[in-house]
Amino acid sequence: MSRPHIGFGAFISPLHPPGENPTLQLWRDLELVEWLDELGLDEAWIGEHHSGGWGTIGSPEIFLAAAAERTRQIRLGTGVTSLPYHHPFMVASRIVQLDHQTRGRVMLGVGAGSAPGDAHMLGIDPGEQRRMTAESLEAVLELLAGRGPVTRRTDWFTLRDARLQHRPFRPGGIEVAISSAASPQSMQLAGRHGLSPLSFASPRPGGTAPDLARQWEYAEEAAAAAGRTVRRADWRLVVNVYVGESRRQAMEELREGAAAWMRGYFGDIVGLPVDALGIEPGGEIEALVESGAAIVGSPDEVADGIEQLHKSSGGFGKLLVTGADWASRENTKRSFERLARFVVPQFNGSLEGFETSREWVRENRTEFVTQAIGAFQRAFTDSGAAAPKLPLPVPATPEETS
To answer: Does some domain include residue 1?
Structure first.
């Protein structure tokens, strides 16, 4: 069965349950990125959080600099840099330096920031974050373009004859992605500036699934108005995915972690009324799967779920697996390994040549093996020995060749 062509990566916020050594958590996250690189996944995105006790990385750029030294080919992105928290010159300057340190493997993911505690500590009015994001984004893009000095003044940053000393490592520049949850603004900014959209496809507990098809329309409409184009191949969807040997086994491996995430993070920290949603204790993972917030099962079941997401969204270029610490360290690594071994090949075309060759040999096996048996028997008779009797192959059936 032919499936759509999709790339794969990971979106590692990260969110870790409290109570574990935070220093070791950082090293475990670095180890996970190393593992993704060994498995051949395309990219890893690392988030920025400063409060709440679950998000443990405050500077994705510092983390990615260390990850770059441990990896060979995986692309590395900030997932995301919260633009209202930083002066745009520093955002642009840091990412271009990282671009050179990684020899062009870095991507800049940007957003408004999602943690209310972070904005509060920085004295930022949540109602101003989207405006600030749009203003900063324009400045960052202008600086990265490097076409001349940038002068801009807003009520929260000033640029005066600003220009970067470094230029991006590659002539094509640095890929810039913008995160989108449910509101139209981020998709509209992606379209207006020709950026790569990065959408969260999983609903929050108790929420409705985002209308991904409509989200893409926002980007297309804004792109058309600005005289730009957006490509579905550049659209990334972020979703919880876990690959087990079977769905039953996978659900059991996730049960405790999913409950801690839903009740400990969204219930206790974010304040969502999880109990009022009618989710029974111990049934959190079932609720997440049923709502579409997670794709869980055997490799083929996960592949079917991803294909269904591709169909319902209208099509996207890459799927990013959320790193949410639902499973143990060992099981998380096994899930990614099963993803890379059994799911990714169904979407990247790497099996097509093998399938074609297998079918070709099966369809022609009578001719091939008969010739081989004849040559083998002639070797005996040419030497004056009695040739052994060997069974001829059974012709391929229509069912085998269909």
So the answer is: no
Measured CA to CA, the distance from residue 124 to residue 121 in angstroms comes to: 8
Does any domain span residue 148? yes
Cis peptide before 80 (omega within 30 of 0): yes
Residues 282 and 391 in one domain: no
Distance CA 112, CA 119 (A): 10
Cα(327)–Cα(121) distance, integer angstroms: 32
Cα(14)–Cα(11) distance, integer angstroms: 8
Structural tokens at position 129: 């974050």
Alpha-carbon dihedral sign for residues 61, 63, 65, 70: negative
116 vs 36: CA distance, rounded Å: 31
| Domain tally, the chain | 2
Six token digits for residue 197: 């959209």
* One-letter identity of residue 105: R
pLDDT of residue 402: 60
Supply angle C-alpha 127, 130, 133, rounded to 5. Answer: 135
Specify whether 260 is located in the same domain as 285: yes
- The residue range of the domain holding 382 is 359-401
Same domain, 393 and 296: no
Cα–Cα distance list, 304 to 235, 331, 346, 352 (Å): 20, 21, 10, 18
Instruction: Assign residue 211 the CATH number of its domain.
Output: 3.20.20.30
Kindly report, residue by residue over 347-396, the tens digit of the pLDDT.
999 999 999 999 999 999 999 999 999 999 999 999 999 988 888 888 88
Mention every residue, 6+ apart, whose C-beta is less than 8 A from residue 147: none
Alpha carbon separation from 357 to 306, 351, 360, 365 (Å, rounded): 26, 10, 5, 12
CB atoms within 10 A of CB 140: 25
Structure tokens at 251: 């659900």
CB 107, CB 67: distance < 8 Å: no
Dump pLDDT digits (tens) for 312-325.
999 999 999 998 89
Ranges in the chain, pLDDT < 50: none
CA distance 303 to 201: 16
